[in-house]
Records
---
Amino acid sequence: MKLELKAVKHSEWASQETNCYQATIYLEGKPFASVQNEGFGGPTSIYRDHRFKGDMKAWNYKKERVNKYLQMNFEDVWDFEEAIVSWSDKALVDWLIMKDLRNAMKRKILFKKADGKLYEAKATIEAIRSQYPDAQILNDMQTQEAFRIFSMA
């Protein structure tokens, strides 16, 4: 089952106790649900996306299937009824981290030295490699591997 969070709109300034955002959840490449959180500490709300093909009964059936799938396949999900909401909140955090990673890599070279810490420098990849031969250079990695290292820092 392929779930994706797309059309993300996040407001840093309006996020108080929770992330203020709205987004669309795509199921198997098609719009499925809209999610939003006001940012005041309340729960994330989920609604049927207006582009979903099918009636409310079909949407509820698919939502139940998605919740069961998430309950069985992701450790972060603890509440069966709200599995899709928990997933969307985590997907938003991952989206924000990826956004930060891409912005940081546009400006500087990011690398992890043998001490396990993440560093950044305004230099070339070759210069970093020659100075720190054992360094892992995030700008020169597959995106998912760079994300994994960056998100742990």
---
Amino acid sequence: MTHFFASLSFDWSVTSVADNVGRRLHESGLKPHWDLGGCCEIEEIIFICFYAAYVVAFFVLYHTTILKPMRLLSVFVHEFGHASACFMTGGSIKKIEVYENEGGVTGYTGGCRTLVIPAGYVGGAFWGGALTVNSAYVRATSHHRGRHLTFPLPFQVSLWL
């Protein structure tokens, strides 16, 4: 008895797939639109230039003291994710330490260890998503702008003490 799949042959090469898609589009009367003439107007070009400048500035300034507070803040958010998961699973937080070498530790007792350990990354993603969603609303960002600027200040002052 021959196996059913042994009698089938598949050609998954790029040209075969493209030919198949093109044939199906042609048979259905649809034609692909490959003209990119209206792709990049002035808004898109400005966005691409600013984004490229951002990427270059990020890589140039990342290991400087200018971005050190932001890197330490991201470590704090990571550790706060561990602490939040511990608290939500019934544990207690003993300490959160953020070190100058951009390391950190969260001391806790109790809680569900399986949820606390990966929660640092999940917490960072959650707070990054929350800030992104909050920044989408002009009224919310203009209302809370002062709070966003002053929130890291106590954190930075505590590092200097």
---
Amino acid sequence: MDSGNGASRLRYAAATTSLAAVPLFATLPTVRLEWLAERCPPRDVHAGATVARFGEPARDLIVVESGTVSATYDTSDGAMVRFASVAGPAVIDKAAVLDNSVHTARWTALTDCRIRLLPVALFRELLDKEPALRGHVLRHLSEQVNRDRRARVRTAASAPVGRVADWIAESTHTHGNRIKLPAAQQGLGEEIGLSRITVNRALRVLADAGAIRVEPRTIVVLDARRLADAARAG
């Protein structure tokens, strides 16, 4: 056996396994994953580095194979709004790419990451050739619209405990009962419009009620019913 060919096959096998773990690509056949791996080589990004800048054209779909990235926006008065923290495997900013638009947030690596950049032309080619992928993207965009609406309602809620409880309850749909906080309580506060101190107090109330347990950079849901009650009460 040619050692060079064997090593190449192993690299492709590892790459296709990593890409298959990305929910967007989960239904793609191996030959299509290999096609992606060849055309979109991986890039290592260190913690703190900018992955995409606000206002720049969204020419590439950003595939996060590993690590965590965060979307933020700096307001004119110097405040920072955090939209989300996303842990790989995942794809970010699909809507901006499909709209031929610009990035509406600054995406920053919170940890060391491995990413791939999928040019929009190749992404559209995939959408044309893979009906299952089109269905996934449509579901994602619909879910994103609903999440944005719920976030607006959450921000309008007057009680911090209810706002925090609602965020935790929604997060269980994608993260289960153990929810990581890559940017800690400060990041959660920036995402839902509360100070770190207010978030900390709200978490203590929920913990005292037996709804959650707070661990370093992690929230563990203990009682979904009590959590839902707190979210409704808010």
---
Amino acid sequence: MKFNLRLFLCLIFFVFFIMEISALGVTPARRTIDFSPSLSQRNSFTIVNPENKDMELNIYVRGELAQYIQLEKTKVSLISQDSSISISYNLNLPNELSPGTNIGEIVISESSKQSSGENFIGATLSVVTQVYVYVPYPGRYAEAIMNILNADSNGDVTFIFSISNLGEFDLNNVYANVDVYSSLNEKISSFNTHTINIKSQKKEDLIYKWNARELSNGNYYAKAAIIYEDKVINLEGTFRVGSTTLELQDLYVNNFNLGEIVKVDMLVENKWSEPISGAKSIMEIYGKQGNILDRIVSPDYTISGLSKEIMSAYWDTNGVYEGDYDTKVILEYANNRIDNNLVLQVSQNKLTVIGLGYVISEDGRSSRGENSTMTILFIVIGILILVNLLWFILLRKYISKKK
């Protein structure tokens, strides 16, 4: 009986927690500032009260930049009539900061609730607005990530090197040397890419297609060295040639709108003759520095032999900015893993997937299929116009002869 009572109380607490979780917000989620010695700047953020509740809020700072952020207020009272409130703060930077991204966070937290004379168990809401201060690296300095697209129908493997010049000076004649290894760690090829130039504080993609038509189907391993000036960045990655047991054939989102929770559907084909149980998809979305921004995991699926299944997962795009994101879709089953390297181009109402050939817009339709349909439609219309024109000419000749 005691166990059932505890379970009931936990369920009640969980329900209230879910109800409370959306009762506080803040905008902007992040503010990015380029470093300038002794910079003094006044900024603000807005606390949002979407459910028009009465709340007592505490505000404090944390992180590397905490000592340089002075809040206008550290306590705020919201009443039900307040849909939002703006809070200002001063950012006073020193003469020097460490190169790279320095982060400060302003935390807005609901005050702990206490009932009269008794302990109250509840969810304490907190939201964060971030302050990023970017400091250039002295001299010449670059960072890079490598994304490899599996061999296409022509046998071409596409290497995409996203290189960020974070230093003070431009970089000239930047290139990559790539060594390719088999699954047995045997070196089977080596090549150099073409060169590119990268302006200071800019990012460029070095894209190189390598033909792997003569390779046997299977997984391969690549070691790359990005070479600039007298420095080297070492990178590693894998790619696939030929079909494997599970194949990602499509990725789409119905009614894509940036800032919302979107359902990502992935069409997966089982090329094996027997069912595969416990298969799931893992979608890893990377930032510019190669860090994982989000990791989206689907439930487990059972896919019948020689058939297709849609794997679904949910992506919260709140806080995601427009731009290009290197993405890896991993298909896992038993002890096997298949990597699919893609690039997501995110805009407000459109998601372009580079690597599968689909463009996902607000209505959720893939542009590749739409273009095919339009092409067929234009051909049919053209044929009908020609038939009608021919019929009109013949009819005129027939009438002329009768006269």
